[in-house]
Amino acid sequence: MTFVQQINGETDERLTFSELERKILKTANILLSLGLKKGDVVTLFSPNSINYPVVVLAVALIGALCSPINYLYNADELMKLISQVEPSIIFTTRLLVGVVQQILPQCPYNVLLMDSGPGCFLEQDDGCLLTDVKDVGILMDDSFVLPFSSGTTGVPKAVQLTHRNVICNSQQVLDRERLDYHKEDKILSVLPYFHIYGCMANMLACLLTGSTQIIMSKFDPEMFLKCIDYYKCSYLTVVPPMLLFMCRHPLAINTTFPNVRAIVTGAAPTPVSLIEEIRKKLKAGAIVKQAYGLTETSPALSINLNSRLKDDSVGTLLAHTELKVLDANNKILPRNQNGELCVRGPQIMKGYYRNAAANEQTFTEDGWLRTGDIGSVDENGFLYLFDRSKELIKVKGFQVAPAELESILLSHPLVADSAVIGVPDDKLGEKPRAYVVLKKDGSVREEELVRFVAGKVAAFKRLTGGVQFVQEVPKSQTGKILRRVLKEKYLA
Description:
One of its GO terms (molecular function) is CoA-ligase activity. The chain is an alpha/beta fold.
C-alpha cells in the first residue's frame, strides 16, 4: 500500500513517503557535491511548497542549518536578515528570484531554484546511489534550524534550535491529549513553513505521525475552503483571523466542516467568543483549543488537553517544562497574579545566533528564558496570557514589530517622534497605526506618511490603521514608549 505524505492542494501534485525520502537523499548528495558542509547555513526564501520539506531535511541530513525567511519581505528586509546568518546558498523560487537578485551585488550568494519542473535544482540527477550520503557525525546539541524571532527591537534575531530541542518538543506535543495526529488524518498546511508554528505543527509533525499534509502556498479564502472540503481535512492548525474567516466571511458563513475533528489555534490569543462560534460549525465532539509558544521554545510551551479544555486559557504546561512568574523586581509571584513568564525545559533554544548581547538579556543568570509575555497560572495549572509585553502587532498571524515601523517613520525629514500600535480589525486581527509628532513647522499629510512607509516594507506591515498626529508620544522615565497608554487613550 502506498502512503501519500504531501499533496499540493493547489495543483494536486503528490509525494509518497518513499518518494520524499529519495528526493531528500538525492538533494543532500547534490549539496555535498557543491561543497556544503556541516555547520554551513542555507537560507530558504520561499512560500510553502511540496519541495520545502525536501530542502529542510536534506540540509539537516548533512549537518547544515536551514534559515527560513518570510517570502513576503522586500530586498532591504531580506538583506537585514541574511547578513546575520551569512548563508552559503539561498533557495528560492522563480517568482521570488528577482527579489534575491537585488541583493546579489552586495552579497554574491549561490542561488538555487526549488520549484518543481525542468531546469530546477531539485530535478537534477546527482548520479549517486541513495546510500551514498556521508555520515557527518551530527550531535543532538548541534543546531538544526535558524528561524527568525519576532523582532521586537526592529530587526528579528536568528534563533538556534537544536536537534534535541525539536525532537523533545515533538515528543512533548504529539500525544493523544495534545496534538493527536493519526496516520489517517489529512492536515491542512496553510501556516507558513518559515514560521516555527507551521514548521513544527505541520511539516515535521506530519512526517513523525504518518499523517498526510495538504499544502497551501498561502492563505487564499476560496482555496482554503476548497482544500478542506475536497481533501476532507480532519485537523486544522490556524491563527485567529482564519477562525474569524471560517465563522463570518460571506464565502464561509453557510459552510459547515463535517470532516474536521480538531482545531488548534495559536500565534496570538483567541477570543473565547470566537472559539465558541467555530465550535458550533463543527461536528459534535470536535475539539477547538488554544496553544502557546515562542520561536525560542521550538515553539510549544502549553496546549490545552483534549480531556480538560478551558477556552480562556492557553492550556497546561508540556511535560518537563518549568515556569515561574516574576514581578518587576524579579521576585516570584503566587498563582493567579500576572507577571513576566519565564520558562525552562528541553525545548528552549540554544541561543540567538552570533548575538551574545541578546542572549544575556534574554536568559536569567540561572538559565531561565524570559518570554517577555505577561500572564499567570491558576491553582489547576492552567496558563493565561494577559498581555504580549513584546508588543508585536499580529496581522493575519504575521508578526509586525512596531520598532521597525517607528524607525522608518523617524527617517522622514519632517517627523520628530513616532509610536506604532496595533488596532483591532475583524478581518486582519490587528492593523498597524502610527502616532506621529511632526517637527516644528513641519507639514505633511497622513497619506504621504502611509505611502512613505509602504515603499519600504512588505504589504502586511503597511500602516493600514492610518496615521494620527499628536503633540507627544508617552514614554517612561527610561525612554520606553508607553504603548499601553496610547491604547487606553485612543482605543478605549
